[in-house]
Amino acid sequence: MNARAFKALWGGAVALMLVAGGLSAAEPEAKKAVKLPKPPARTQPLLDKGKQAFTLYCVACHGEKGDGQGPAGMALKPPPRNFAKDAFKQGQSTAEIFLTVSNGVPQTAMVGYGHLPEEDRWGLAYYVGEFIPKKKAAKK
Ligand code: HEC
Fold first, then answer.
1. How far is the CA of 3 from the centre of ligand 1 (A)?
2. d(CA 44, CA 123)
3. Cα(111)–Cα(113) distance, rounded to whole angstroms?
4. Residue nearest to atom 41 of ligand 1 (CA)
């Protein structure tokens, strides 16, 4: 092998290693991209805002008690979540509910409410959280 061919081969190998390295480094990067926002403090005014918005925008499907029995929710498939009983497919932390409310659930009647002021969406996230039964402290 002459020196020129060796250089070309070597260059190719380095390029391949760079590409491969770049690809494997890109993966954890992509996972990190889904970062949950940090909820603001849970205050009574924020909860009040949430209740107000819930009554306006959500009760028709999710019902006043958050049980999914709203008049417009009856015929839907999948049905609106019963916040008190059903598992949350998108997660039930305040930040996760905030994202659900902001982005909606694709392929369902649950549309995103990203057009509402951010404060209202945090209020909604906290208000929806109120319907979730608190886990009983383990008696041990
Ligand atoms: C047109 C009816 C409708 C309206 C209005 C509606 N939802 Fe929903 N919602 C649904 C349906 C249907 C689902 C169930 C989607 C599924 O099964 O994945 C759902 C699911 C959810 C979930 C649970 C997602 C999960 O993690 O499983 C949350 C939280 C939620 N809605 C919040 C709200 C809030 C807050 C509002 C008002 C801003 C609202 N929804 C308005 C129909 C509605």
1. 67
2. 9
3. 7
4. 58
Closest C-alpha residue for ligand 1 atom 40: 58
pLDDT of 6 reads 60
**65: helix, strand or coil:** coil
CATH code of domain 44-131: 1.10.760.10
Query: Is ligand 1 within 6 A of the CB of residue 60?
Result: yes
**pLDDT for the residue 67:** 96
pLDDT of residue 27 exceeding 50: no
For the chain, the structural domain boundaries read: 1-34, 44-131
Ligand 1 centroid distance, CA of 32 (Å): 26
Q: pLDDT-based confidence at 35, cuts 50/70/90? A: confident
* Whether 68 contacts 86, CB under 8 Å: yes
User: How many A from CA of 81 to the centre of ligand 1?
Assistant: 6
